[in-house]
Predict the 3D structure of the following.
Amino acid sequence: MEVLNQPIGIWIAAILTIMVYSYLLGDNPLYRLAEHLLVGSTIAYAVVVAVHSVLIPRLFLRLSEGQWLYLIPLVLGVLLLTKFKPAWASLGNLPMSILFGIGAALALSGALFGTIAPQVQGTILSLNPADYPTTGWLGVVNALIIAIGTICTLLYFKFSVSKTDRQEREYQGGALRPWAKIGRWTLMIAFGTIFASLVMSRASLFIGRMQFLLSDWLHVIRMP
């Protein structure tokens, strides 16, 4: 990391930054070279981290201590390498199935306990002004907006009504239609805020790169 603060590191970072932004003029060899350098350095870094943070301390070191149970993940890892040769690819089906099974279980539990449950808990809010000592009635209004927005969004998707059912026609002209429209506008507002946050983060990255080029590299401006 100290190399990046040296003149040669600053020049390399500045040249690579310009090569990346050259894509604004169209696809060109300079941009592709920078892209390949990024991918290659990322893969190399991941391999080094995997070797020094996973394989050596969590596998080879424990095998050297006589914990022979760790031969199982070693064998499964070696079987994964057989996927590179079509004639031996079937040997890698067992570790692949284990990886997919564990990945699916982690994804399901993560979605349930990390996303759905916190969101449900976040919409169960109190309407008592005493529970909002700093905001008072403004906190109650915010709680109502969250609750109504959540319910109307669920109504917009119409989970329990079939499009081919007669109830669908009644639903389209019934009392729930205005609430479904509110749910649609709630979705649009949410998507708009997510897009705005994404644009702001990209703009912040661009400003940071421009400050680096003009301050650290060219010394045109001085940063406090």
In short: The two ends are 22 Å apart (CA to CA). Residues 177-217 form the longest helix (41 residues). The mean pLDDT is 88. Helices lie at 7-21, 29-64, 71-80, 93-123, 137-157, 166-173, 177-217.
